[in-house]
Amino acid sequence: MEKKRIRIGIAPIGWTNDDLPDLGSENTFEQCVSEMALAGFKGTEVGNKYPRDTAVLKKALALRDIEICNAWFSACFTTKSEEEVLKEFVEHRDFLYEMGAKVIGAAEVGNSIQGLSDPIFDAKPVYTEEQWEKVVRGYNKMADLAAEKGMKVACHHHMGTGVQTMEEIDRFMESVQDNVYLLYDSGHIYYSEGNYEACLTLLKKYIDRTAHIHLKDVRPEIVEQIRAEKKSFLDGVRAGTFTVPGDGAIDFEPIFKIVNESNFEGWMVVEAEQDPAKANPLEYALKARKYIEEKSGC
User: Fold this and answer.
1) Rounded distance, CA 240 to CA 100, Å?
2) Which of 6, 1, 11 is nearest to 270 (CA)?
3) SS3 letters for 33-56?
4) Residues 17-60 pLDDT 10s
5) I need a labelling partner for 119 at 20 to 30 A (CA). Which of 4, 144, 147, 252 fits?
6) Alpha carbon 221 to chain centroid distance?
């Protein structure tokens, strides 16, 4: 892979978890970004312990030669007014623009169950026609607002949301404007569809409209346990559903080949939420970085 075209980052969720604050509560922002740098990563997404003062954040990252490449945006077009969501989006956009990011990863979570105790497979929301219209219109408007700053909006397909399955992702991508992109997440599509082929099918289909990539591995035995016991998404996180590339069931070499043979330019980011008391963040970051370098050349 061309290192100038494709860069490698890591998300702070392996150190401190936004949805489960007790996971990694002992880990500081400084430890997190220092260990990212020590493991050889050049980019990071934004976690709940990151300073929001851009001058403070820039200084801390510059000391470690790391930059911000994206930050999660919670879109709630299904439950809030469009005006309110877009106001929040502009504030988020401007923060990321100031930090030099080019992509805004957004998930529609208005009626998501990802943070609830509901069984992740049995209680997943399914949009009504009216909700689809709200989501599509909202993403189109966010994309236009992002374009004002030379940025891209990428939809993060996610477990527990209405844009989770292959069919839902297809409908979304066919409905939105061409300037709405996909945030491809290997772990979430494997989790949703229950097989590795879905990882390759989704990426092949939308690589030309993919603006950001999450490299997330999966432990299938935990997924099956969560399904059988009707557990929640967060139960799965605690149990170890996800892990870093090279430590689960996903073979990333064909994924890297698809990316390399495309015109993709941007960030591939390790995003693997685990309990840091069980999976030492630095140890797993080093493991991920070594695997990615061996399999992709980046």
Assistant:
1) 33
2) 11
3) HHHHHHCCCCEECCCCCCCCCHHH
4) 999 999 999 999 999 999 999 999 999 999 999 999 999 999 99
5) 252
6) 22
Domains of the chain: 6-296 (3.20.20.150)
Characterize the bridge pairing of strands 210-215 and 266-270.
Answer: parallel
Nearest to 41 by CA among 77, 15, 17, 22: 15
Pair of tokens at residue 127: 């949009």
Decide: 89 and 75 in contact? Cβ < 8 Å: yes
Cα–Cα distance for residue pair 283/281, rounded to 1 Å: 6
The owner of tokens 């300073």 is 51
| Tokens coding 130 | 């009216």
pLDDT digits (tens, 9 = 90+) for 263-284: 999 999 999 999 999 999 999 9
